Amino acid sequence: MNTLSDARLAAELAAEAGELLLTLRAAEQDLIDGKALGRKGDQLANVLLLDRLSADRPDDSVLSEESADDKSRLNASRVWIIDPLDGTREFSMPGRGDWAVHVALWEAGQGITAAAVAMPVLGTVYASDDVAVLSGPVDGPIRIVVSDSRPPAFTVDLEAQLSARIIGMGSAGAKAMAVVRGDADAYVHAGGQWEWDSAAPVGVALAAGLHCSRIDGSPLRYNESHPYLPDLVICRPELAESILEVVADPR
């Protein structure tokens, strides 16, 4: 069993999976079509993460996007929630860097207690134990990142009512980390996600002092029987009230 802290282990695993994906992409992006490359990346990164977790945290359960859902996790006190390749579409497209690897730990009675998001193209891993806490006021128009392929219907309301600048971007992890590092002020999503899409980004964002909730303001809950978690707000805390007001009552 690995003696690293859970947060350090999450960061190490996310980094390793990210390196694997970069190597795969460089070697095969000109040899196979994008969909096949994405599928292969999903599968190989999943195997790496599952093997490492089995060796380093053998008593813990795992919920992965790329594996069958073992419902025994519902009786477990510790569950790793992983997305081996968040942004498969972006990974399969030459030149795109807005994809990520998510590794998070949920603990009974505590929620997400350790998390890491690797952004391999940036060469960066954001981890819950060493992420910088954002400070200082918002300078200029509010910058809100949304899905570039399926932006929420209320995007136009955010733009109009808050004079916000809307920025389209790929994976959930990429959008959340844009807020964590201060390149955006909020990330808003509606229309469908799963626990593995947001668990690690939310864990890192909370450690950075950001507001994280459903679009109705209710808490984000993980290791649920049905892991569908369709909407999300991650933002600077001083913006939460105004953003939630708009998305709750779009005009």
From TrEMBL:
> Superkingdom of this entry's organism?
Bacteria
Query: What catalytic activity is recorded?
Result: adenosine 3',5'-bisphosphate + H2O = AMP + phosphate
One of its Pfam families is Inositol_P
Question: Which residue windows are transmembrane per the record?
Answer: none
What's in the keyword line of the UniProt record?
A: Magnesium, Metal-binding
Q: Provide the GO biological process annotations.
A: 3'-phosphoadenosine 5'-phosphosulfate metabolic process; sulfate assimilation
Q: Which GO terms describe its molecular function?
A: 3'(2'),5'-bisphosphate nucleotidase activity; metal ion binding
Q: Which cofactor does it need?
A: Mg(2+)
- Residues involved in Mg(2+) binding: E65, D83, L85, D86, D197
Q: Which PANTHER family match?
A: 3'(2'),5'-BISPHOSPHATE NUCLEOTIDASE 1 (PTHR43028:SF5)
What name does this protein carry?
A: 3'(2'),5-bisphosphonucleoside 3'(2')-phosphohydrolase
